[in-house]
Each structure stands twice: as structure tokens, then as C-alpha cells.
Design a protein that fits this description.
Its EC number is 1.3.8.6. This is glutaryl-CoA dehydrogenase (ETF). The protein is an alpha+beta fold. It contains eleven helices and nine strands.
Length: about 400
């Protein structure tokens, strides 16, 4: 075995001190670079303004651009979808959230919730009717599961669907639904005499409305709304035939949570890099603040947590690509990576001082967004109990 003097090797990149890039294939780097290039050109110059204004002005145009890039439902096969690997999808989520969590939410809800529900549980006719147009960004979807009084316990939903001749009639309310205000279709989950079933509900259906939820201080670049269903009538062909019970919506949530495992790292990376650059440029007491031990400790701790989260994401991505990823393992990734990403953003804010609360820098925006990411797709408490049940064999949810 040959021996190489470690000191003769090139110095590590300060932006990638553990050389995590070596874990990726050329194809994975190419996907990442393509997403990054589009975001840098189209979104980065405007995202702080959109966040402050509380929305993306030309959301349909941007969605079509994301469709042309191939990221909508990119990990699904057929029907106009790109058919890329779970790891490639994860890298795209990381880059999207490095720009803004709201943008990653748009892509995640479209591909991992609405499209995935049709792709996995829909009829061939439903797949042919919707998936290619959704992959192109021509049709925007949302996912109606959460209710005002049914969040972490979705099985207690009160939305109901009843048969009326050859149709279904749906009544109920859904809350905190990303994409809802501008969605063309909603995947609505409702209780029936045959258990919980899913329905594809066009937004122009009589009795359907999606009022926007205002006054948010997080995910401001993402439109969030209610779904109001007052006697909404849909044909029998609107029901997802293969989904019965909570397995249907939970399988979709697990898919979306996987994207969050990667996405949260994007917000962390953006904040870490902003803090590292700032520490090199900001001078106090005659020296860059990066020359002081306490600042270096913060940067070192932030970098370590990012490295560990990235290693976990790659590992889960490889398992998913091999067909070996369990929902409990997705919970481990979501619990750890969002929690540590939020701490990285908060610590980065302290390095930037007062500048850390300005939208001139991305840090406070990422921190505010991650407060929502920490809660949606399963709270810290719920994912903690999933892991706790795995470790002990005891279910502690009730």
C-alpha cells in the first residue's frame, strides 16, 4: 500500500472542508449545477424582495421555468417526468432551499405530494390526464390533508365525502396548504364510509375556494391558503382508486419529508457561507472578527453540524435509490437536519450582529423560513416519538 504525505495534498476548500463533493457522481454534480445556474439567474436577484412583499409576482411563469428545468416530479418515472434518482432530487432540493425554503416548498408540494399521489395511487387515466402537464408546470397542484383541528393527528380529520349517485360530494376545511391560492387542482383527503380516500378536485369546482392566509412572518415567498369545500361535487373518476386509509397520504408525506432532509441543508449552507464571508470582512478591534476564538468556534460548530447532516442526507439518498429507505429513517433525517439547520442559521445571525436581521443578507430569511419547516411535515415532537418507538418498541403517541 502506497503512502502519501497528507501535507502534500491540496488544501481543503474552506467552503467544503470535509470534501463532501467527492461523494457525488459527475451526473449528480451536473444536476446540482443546472439548478444552481437557473436560480442564480432567475431568482436570487429578487428573492429578498419577494419575501418582503409576501409573494412571487409571476408564480405561473416561474413554475413553468422550473418545469422546463425538469425539477417538478423529477424523481418520478414516465408521464413527462425526468426519472432522476432520489439523490439527484435531494441535491436539487438543497439548491432550491439555499435560495429560499418557499421555493423548495413549491417544488416539493408539486412533485412529492400532489404529483406523487397521482403517480402512486392514481388510475392510468388520471396519470395521463395530469402528470405531464404538472411536470411541465402548466398545472399547479396542492395537497389537502391538514385541518384546523387535525394537524399531527390527520386520522381525526372531519372532512367528509359521500356518494350521491355516480358522484362524490365533499364537505370540509383544510388549513395551511402550500400552493393553495393559485393551484389548479387539489389532492383532497376525506373520510368516507370506506375509510379515508383521496380525490383530485379541480380548483374551479363549484363550492371550492382557496383563500390565502395573510400576515405570515415565515415562508413569505410561498403562497399558503385554506381549502374550503362546501358541497363540492366531483365524478367517481376523481377518486384515487388505489389509496385507502392513512397509508395514502402518509406515503406522500414521507416522500416530501425526504426532500426536506436535503432542503434544510441548503438554508444552512447559505447562512454558514454568509457568516464565513462576513467574519473575514468585518473588522473590530483592528482585526477581522474571524480571527477571534469565539467566532471561530461558532463557525467550526456550524460547519461540523452541516457536514454531519450532509453525510446523513447522502446516506439516506443512497438507501432510497436502493429501495431500502424506511419511514423511520426519513424521520431521523428530518428531525436532525431541520433542527441543526435552524441552529446554524441562528448562530450565523449572531456572527452578523445587527446586519443579521437585514434582508440584505439571507440569514434571517432562512431562519424565519426554517421555523415553519421545523413544524410542517411532522413536528419535532412527532419525529422524536417515531424514533423513540423504534428504539423502545413502545408507541407513545397517545
Amino acid at each position: 500500500m502506497s503512502h502519501t504525505d497528507p501535507m502534500s495534498l491540496p488544501a481543503p476548500d474552506p467552503a467544503d472542508p470535509a470534501a463532501l463533493d467527492d461523494l457525488l457522481s459527475d451526473e449528480e454534480r451536473e444536476v446540482r449545477a443546472a439548478v444552481r445556474a437557473m436560480l442564480d439567474a432567475r431568482v436570487e436577484p429578487h428573492i429578498a424582495e419577494w419575501f418582503e412583499a409576501g409573494g412571487i409576482p409571476d408564480i405561473r411563469g416561474l413554475t413553468r421555468e422550473l418545469g422546463a428545468l425538469g425539477v417538478l416530479g423529477m424523481h418520478l418515472d414516465g408521464y413527462g417526468c425526468a426519472g432522476m434518482t432520489a439523490t439527484q432530487y435531494g441535491l436539487a432540493c438543497l439548491e432550491l432551499e439555499a435560495t429560499d425554503s418557499g421555493l423548495r416548498s413549491l417544488v416539493s408540494v408539486q412533485g412529492s405530494l400532489a404529483m406523487f399521489a397521482i403517480w402512486l395511487w392514481g388510475s392510468e387515466q388520471q396519470k395521463q390526464e395530469w402528470l405531464a402537464r404538472m411536470a411541465a408546470g402548466e398545472v399547479i397542484g396542492c395537497f389537502g390533508l391538514t385541518e384546523p383541528d387535525a394537524g399531527s393527528d390527520p386520522a381525526s380529520m372531519t372532512t367528509r365525502a359521500r356518494r350521491d349517485g355516480g358522484d362524490w360530494v365533499i364537505d370540509g376545511r383544510k388549513m395551511w396548504i402550500s400552493n393553495a391560492p393559485y393551484a389548479d387542482i387539489a389532492i383532497v383527503w376525506a373520510g368516507t364510509d370506506d375509510g379515508i380516500r383521496g380525490f383530485i378536485v379541480p380548483a374551479d369546482s363549484p363550492g371550492f375556494s382557496a383563500p390565502e392566509i395573510r400576515h405570515k412572518l415565515s415562508l413569505r415567498a410561498s403562497a399558503t391558503g385554506e381549502l374550503v369545500l362546501d358541497g363540492v361535487r366531483v365524478p367517481a373518476s376523481a377518486m384515487l382508486p388505489e389509496a385507502r386509509g392513512m397509508k395514502g397520504p402518509l406515503s406522500c408525506l414521507n416522500e416530501a419529508r425526504y426532500g426536506i432532509v436535503w432542503g434544510a441543508l441548503g438554508a444552512a449552507r447559505s447562512s454558514l457561507e454568509a457568516a464565513r464571508r462576513y467574519a473575514r470582512e468585518r473588522v473590530q478591534f483592528g482585526r477581522p472578527i474571524g480571527a477571534f476564538q469565539l467566532t471561530q468556534q461558532k463557525l467550526a460548530d456550524m460547519s461540523l453540524e452541516y457536514i454531519k447532516g450532509y453525510l446523513l442526507a447522502v446516506h439516506l439518498g443512497r438507501r432510497k435509490d436502493a429501495g431500502l429507505l424506511r419511514p423511520e429513517q426519513v424521520s431521523i433525517g428530518k428531525l436532525n437536519n431541520v433542527r441543526e439547520a435552524l441552529e446554524i442559521c441562528r448562530t450565523a445571525r449572531t456572527i452578523l450582529g445587527a446586519n443579521g436581521i437585514s434582508l440584505e443578507y439571507p440569514v434571517i430569511r432562512h431562519a424565519a423560513n426554517l421555523e415553519s419547516v421545523l413544524t410542517y411535515e411532522g413536528t419535532v415532537e412527532m419525529h422524536t416519538l417515531v424514533l423513540g418507538q423504534l428504539l423502545t418498541g413502545e408507541q407513545a403517541f397517545r
